[in-house]
Amino acid sequence: MKIFTAAQIREADAFTIREEPVSSTGLMERAAGKCAAWLEVQFAPTTPVYIFCGKGNNGGDGLVIARLLLQKGYPVRACILQHSAKASADHTFHLQLLQQQYPACLYEIGAQGDFPVLPAGAVIIDAIFGTGLNKPVEGWMAGIIHQINDQRAIHPVVAIDIPSGLLADSSSLHTPVIQAHHTLSFECYKLAFLLPENAGFTGHVHILPIGLHPDYITQTPTRYHLTDREMIRTIYHPRDPFAHKGTYGHALLIAGSYGKMGAAVLSAKACLRAGVGLLSCHVPQCGYDIMQISEPCAMCVTDEGSTHSAHFHTLPDGATYKTIGIGPGLGTQTATARSLERLLEHYQRPMVIDADALNLLSVYPYLLSRLPQGSILTPHPKEFERLFGTAANDFDRLTLLSQQAVHLHLYILLKGRYTAIACPDGSLYFNSTGNPGMATGGSGDVLTGILTALLAQDYTPKAAVILGAWLHGYAGDLAAEQLSQEAMTATDIITHLGAAFRHVI
Ligand SMILES: NC(=O)C1=CN([C@@H]2O[C@H](COP(=O)(O)OP(=O)(O)OC[C@H]3O[C@@H](n4cnc5c(N)ncnc54)[C@H](O)[C@@H]3O)[C@@H](O)[C@H]2O)[C@@H](O)CC1
Ligand SMILES: [K+]
């Protein structure tokens, strides 16, 4: 699914109005109609509904919702915030309709003291500002936002299109924003919904299709995308009926150290469950028995080091190993770093770099530019910060992420609720699967195994990283469904990988 900027959404509205054709008031009626239908399912007709409307088109949506709910018998109050002398044309049109049909529902707010006393059980609809917000909200309007937020413990708050105060394409940190329980947004996600700093504002996001013109949606290029099953199905390719184990690549996993062999085992198991042809694991001597006993499907190569690997540079070449996954439980010994440096002198194929291998790169940053082009880095936010520095907010971090991916010709997967995958071509994909149950030890090691397996099977790095992140999250969702987010472990993600694949096929 494409993620459009606020300016593109305005263009999509205008394109639809022109090409469908439909009047702008008609399109507003359609959008608001979807919201009213959603509200009718959620709230009984006896529920008092307080709709706070600004003077732009977001407020216009609110006025239409008011009329539609009044027609269904809901007790509705439409509170119009007089933040500007002028109202938009569509707002004015729908205000006149409401005035003609239900004049008693209208209430004007021109100062903070005008905030109404809400009856028990009332629901608050936020239709103050939408994508037309052009600066942080200030003065008495900010006060109204704070008053609504003060009510959220007792009254459900539903935001129309975007919580008021939230900017769609740039940071709203430290500015007044509505904290909604639900956001009913039109047609597609907005970038702001996908970033952790806004987690407290949107609540549950519901995307309501309003019939924006499909030509605009398909023909307009966007930088940001949200992955969905449809996209994943175009990436996945089924196995060849004449395949043998050589067809799907021989991968090498360099992982594990004394006390951290579990990371290597989890990665190996995930790699095998994700379809690799052959897997060799390079482990220190202390890990030999552990790996051989835990995972009989993997071959094992032991390092000269007893507790840490430091001699893996001598082994791998591109002819033997289709790809390398390196990092889970590896440790950050100087000798390990030296071995990584020497490995990078001759290994040229895209690799997967995670965990301690990332930590080594942050200590020896000159190694970053020596990574094979197209390699995949999988940092969590702290690892990312150690590698590339801090950012003032999540939007700046996203810019930094993308700049580094382009500059270094790498795929950088920044883990989070919506894992962000930055590509060397400048595009950025947010992963849509996964849940907080996956915030548990070993979950990242599983991802490394999956990505390594997909690279070994000749998926391009871009396909591997998008598909791998999606499968990992979806397997996690299935595990949580069966076991709960609390009880699931990284092992359960591996167990559910098979079902995740079956969902794609
Ligand atoms: N254009 C269309 O055809 C459609 C638009 N829709 C709605 O229209 C919204 C966008 O409408 P608009 O572009 O009119 O914008 P908004 O309704 O978001 O707000 C614009 C108004 O707010 C004022 N304003 C902006 N920032 C302010 C600030 N910080 N403090 C005080 N006042 C401020 C502007 O001067 C203007 O009066 C969408 O979010 C969506 O809800 C939907 O009805 C779907 C169809
Ligand atoms: K809003």
UniProtKB/TrEMBL annotation:
Pfam families for the chain: Carb_kinase (PF01256), YjeF_N (PF03853)
Residue intervals of the YjeF C-terminal domain: 228-504
Key word Nuclease present: no
Binding site for (6S)-NADPHX: 57-61, 130-136, 161, 263, 329, 380, 445
Keyword 4Fe-4S attached: no
Domain YjeF N-terminal: 9-218
Cofactor(s) demanded: K(+); Mg(2+)
Residues binding AMP, per UniProt: K415, G416, R417, Y418, T419, G444
Cofactor info, note text: Binds 1 potassium ion per subunit.
Catalyzed reactions per annotation: (6R)-NADHX = (6S)-NADHX; (6R)-NADPHX = (6S)-NADPHX; (6S)-NADHX + ADP = AMP + phosphate + NADH + H(+); (6S)-NADPHX + ADP = AMP + phosphate + NADPH + H(+)
Protein residues bound to K(+): N58, D126, S164
CDD domains per UniProt: YXKO-related (cd01171)
Documented EC number(s): 4.2.1.136, 5.1.99.6
Keyword tags: ATP-binding, Isomerase, Lyase, Metal-binding, Multifunctional enzyme, NAD, NADP, Nucleotide-binding, Potassium
Subunit structure comment from the entry: Homotetramer.
Family per record: Belongs to the NnrD/CARKD family. In the N-terminal section; belongs to the NnrE/AIBP family.
Function: Catalyzes the dehydration of the S-form of NAD(P)HX at the expense of ADP, which is converted to AMP. Together with NAD(P)HX epimerase, which catalyzes the epimerization of the S- and R-forms, the enzyme allows the repair of both epimers of NAD(P)HX, a damaged form of NAD(P)H that is a result of enzymatic or heat-dependent hydration. Bifunctional enzyme that catalyzes the epimerization of the S- and R-forms of NAD(P)HX and the dehydration of the S-form of NAD(P)HX at the expense of ADP, which is converted to AMP. This allows the repair of both epimers of NAD(P)HX, a damaged form of NAD(P)H that is a result of enzymatic or heat-dependent hydration.
HAMAP family: NADHX_dehydratase, NADHX_epimerase
Protein name: Bifunctional NAD(P)H-hydrate repair enzyme
Record organism: Chitinophaga nivalis
